[in-house]
Amino acid sequence: MNAKKALRVLALTLALVFMFSAVAAAATPSIIYYKNAAGKVVQADYQAALDRAVAGNTALLDALKKAFVDAQDNFRDIMVKNDDGSVIDWKKALTDKKSYQEAMADSNYAGTEPAHELELVLDESGSVVERPAWPVEMEGLPLISYSDLTQKTYATITIKVEYVDKVTAVTIAGKAAVQQPDRSKWRAEVPAGTTAESLAGKIVITVQQPPAPGQWPAEMEGLPLISYSDLTQKTYATITIKAEYVDKVTAVTIAGKAATRLQNEPNKWRAEVTAGTTAESLVGKIVITVQQPPAPGQWPAEMEGLPVISFSDLTQKTYATITIKAEYVDEVTAVTIAGKAAVQQPDKSKWRAEVPAGTTAESLAGKIQIIVQETPAPGPVAAIKEVRAKLDLFGQTHVWVFLNEGVEASRVTANGQALQYNAVDQRWEGVLDNLKVGDTVKVVVTTTNGSSDEGTATVVAMGS
């Protein structure tokens, strides 16, 4: 048996060993980097290929399998990045006859995420191609447009949602781009005849570095964003509050100036600052006031935090607004605050009532009543619509559970292991070890009303 065939047999054998290994995987493969025949590093989104295969399109997964085996057979580099950020040197692990789980447990097989020139993608025509890579912060391809007003050509890129507040600069083909009113967009002038594809490798996105621990208030996300308004001719600093503190922050000062909460983005607070101010110069100059949690029994159990007191310039009245805990939002039917009937707001977790001028949050203790509708006793429910269980290239079984319309689950398990809810694809999913094709996976669904449902699926190979 020649070396290439031996390595292929080894890879298949290791996959079987992987299935029966007693070592539990701490993470699952997410991105695969391999060298192609031309010696270029290609990035392939393994998780995306799996997701497409689940949806019925196996083209990307089939191409990735072919490229993966070709790289193995020809002893070319393969690095695998897991969903927890760790990287495994799969070529080295194969050479040493290690399973993927053994490699994850041994630091000798820890790899480094390589820079890549190409990415394996499904293009607009439905073909799988290796094309020049784009910055990870970028969504889709650049949009090329022509302005009749300026008689110029422009390229506009879109920043992914999770990077919008972190990007500080963009250059496109060497030209500084300008951030647009839609803050996810950056635009720069480009030569006439420029195409989106011709800009591959010519876009540079600068992302601010996360602050050092303790350098900024714990409630703050990232660094302040400094901006200049052409309308007011002033400079502003905007900070972002972490999601878990948004409803708890009552005041912010930036360099001694009282900041204002942005109406359409309640996690943003903005204050005018001196021209020339930089994000770094504001270290130690940002103060965030967080409301203290109420004492046990001091407020209704259905209420989150303290009431927020506000004054309306429009009505010239003072209001108290309370927040209902998420688990009670759909159960609360009425609220009174200091004897006044409160009105539910467009954000259904909020109820507001007019209160006398000078009212403080603390003065409303014992004066808030929340009426909750009775919950009917749980009954049997057919919760499960479909269960799928598929074995991947690395011997791990991916389980997907789809629920019937209108059913909400508080917990879903597969063979006793808790699954995670994927809100984007509206399914519960997870990865199981030590299974093979033909094995049975038992799923138990506990609904939010306390009832349960059970189902099973037989493990099949990915792509079948």
Write structural notes for this entry.
- The chain is mainly β and 464 residues long.
- It has five domains: 3-132, no CATH class; 138-200, no CATH class; 220-290; 303-372, no CATH class; 384-461, Immunoglobulin-like, CATH 2.60.40.
- It is 12% helix and 42% strand.
- It is built from five helices and 36 strands.
- Strand 28 (384-391) and strand 29 (397-403) form a beta hairpin.
- Helix 2 (46-54) crosses helix 3.
- The chain is globular and about 80 Å long.
- Residues 3-25 have low confidence and may be disordered.
Task: Describe the SSE topology.
Elements: H1 3-20, E1 29-35, E2 41-45, H2 46-54, H3 59-73, E3 78-82, E4 87-89, H4 90-95, H5 100-105, E5 118-122, E6 128-132, E7 138-147, E8 152-159, E9 167-172, E10 175-176, E11 178-179, E12 185-190, E13 203-207, E14 220-229, E15 234-241, E16 249-254, E17 257-258, E18 260-261, E19 268-273, E20 286-290, E21 303-312, E22 317-324, E23 332-337, E24 340-341, E25 343-344, E26 350-355, E27 368-372, E28 384-391, E29 397-403, E30 409-414, E31 417-418, E32 420-422, E33 427-432, E34 440-447, E35 452-458, E36 460-461
Parallel strand pairs: 2-5, 28-36
Antiparallel strand pairs: 1-2, 1-3, 3-4, 5-6, 7-8, 8-12, 9-10, 9-13, 11-12, 14-15, 15-19, 16-17, 16-20, 18-19, 21-22, 22-26, 23-24, 23-27, 25-26, 28-29, 29-33, 30-31, 30-34, 32-33, 34-35
